[in-house]
Amino acid sequence: MPEPSVPLLRLSKVTKRFGVIRAVWNVDLEVSQGDSLAIFGPNGAGKTTLLRIIASLTQPTSGEIEFAFKGDNQSRNRVGYVSHLSLLYNELTGFENLLFYARLYGIQEAHDRADEMLAKMGLEEARNQRTGEYSRGMKQRLTLARALLHEPQLLLLDEPYTGLDQHGSRLFTEVLRGLKQEGRTILLVTHNLGEGLELCDRVMIQNRGELVFQALGEHLDKSGFEKLYFQAVEGERTE
Amino acid sequence: MNPIALTWVLVGKDLKIEYRSRQAYLTTVFFALLILVIFNFAFDPGSPATREAAPGILWVALLFPGIIRLNRSFQVEMEEGTLYGLILSPADRGVLFLGKFLANWLFLMVVDLLVLLAFVIVYNFSFSIQLLWIALLIVLSALGFSAVGTLLGAMVSTIRTREVLLPVLLFPIILPIILPAVSGTQEILLAQEIQSLGRSVELLLAFDVIYLAAGFVLFDYVVAD
């Protein structure tokens, strides 16, 4: 475990370009152990690219990323990633999916761990059902179970509320709140201002690749932040 | 988990998915049979011309349907983004390649041997010991085909036109295994002798080793970014 004073993750001047398009621009960011951070922004702001860079799914064009844990395998073992795609095999059952990933991560007692995670997400009854037959909400909970199998220190969530109804969103938020209480570090990218503010201690706004605003979530209410958000996003657009 | 066990976990996953969906299996077998039957109608059955063209027909029926499997192999990984799930895991990228390659190879083995059986029946060849030599050529060429196909399949997996792009990239690269395989088959079927078959087998083995090593080493670069 890293020391509390050492940031779990530090990004320095990270930039990612796709040809002439700058998806992420000059991002400096520090995330400490136990932080919960929400990044908001309009479509195309570069939020997903930023998360993919942190997850090491894509390389930055320039800048540096440092983890408190060293080495490629170390960081892959300590990071959990939930995207708007489920990263699950539709032809396999919920249990088979978790068992497969547990083995991929070299988890001892993989069977027990898969069953434990199914129980934690309330999916025991759907254990032997193919995930292609799961509802969107069930699938998203299983996705979270997959991301948490190896007990990552840093959990990256990319638009996890996409396609979830009110009930599904509420259930998902409850699970995330539990994880926050366990002291996990959460980095959430979302359009959903309400859910993000409710869940995270720190909030940021990303626009045109840049982080243009950051504050502590406890000092913000939803309507006030909504105003700030539109000012930050629209203000930049009219400039 | 040790690399060998992990490779079999990956193979098992792929075969289980294929067994349950049967998508690639059915379409590949059907496409191969269709090729055999169409060529059978095009040529006069039993004529010397048919027998001369037969080795070429067999390899067309083996190779073109194989593309369906290779495309399907990574299509499954793109549907729900599971390729990212594999890449994000701490598993060695070389092991990920081996798992995919072995699953593709085993799948092709089953399909190819069925196609060989159908070929013998449709083109009226006798079941003899010579067929075992053809089977050997098929096993060896499928090794190289799967190795290059797995690597290129991963490379084009995120491209929208991957179905078209894969054969365009694949066939020129696997020419060194297609040529000895076809000439070896010709020798077995027409000359009824296997004196210079050893040369074809040697060539196939050499290119299999090169393609496998290249796939194992390059897979990391192909899936990065």
Key words describing this protein structure:
heterodimer; A: alpha/beta; six-stranded mixed sheet; globular; B: 225 residues; mainly alpha
Describe this structure in words.
The complex is a heterodimer of chains A (239) and B (225). The longest helix of chain A is centred in the last third of the chain and has 17 residues. Chain A is built from 8 helices and 9 strands. Chain A has 239 residues and is an alpha/beta fold. Chain A has a domain of 63 residues. In chain A, a hairpin with a 2-residue loop joins strand 1 and strand 2. In chain A, the strands form 2 sheets. In chain A, strands 5-6-7-3-8-9 form a 6-stranded mixed beta sheet, with helices on both faces. Chain B is mostly helical and 225 residues long. Chain B has one domain. Chain B contains 8 helices and no strands. The longest helix of chain B has 32 residues. At the A-B interface, helix 2 and helix 3 of A face helix 1 and helix 4 of B.
What's the short version?
The complex is a heterodimer of chains A (239) and B (225). Chain A is of the alpha/beta class. Chain A has a domain at 89-151.
Shape of chain B: globular
Q: What is the overall silhouette of chain A?
A: globular
Structural class, from secondary structure content of chain A? alpha/beta
Unreliable residue stretches of chain B: none
Strand content bin of chain A: 25-35%
Largest sheet of chain A: 6 strands, mixed
* Sheet with most strands of chain B: none
Q: Extract low-pLDDT stretches of chain A.
A: none
Helix/strand order of chain B = HHHHHHHH
The total of beta strands of chain A comes to: 9
The beta-strand count of chain B equals: 0
Helix content percent band of chain B = over 70%
Radius of gyration of chain A: 18 Å
Distance between the termini of chain B: 26 Å
How many angstroms separate the termini of chain A?
Answer: 45 Å
Mean pLDDT of chain A comes to 87
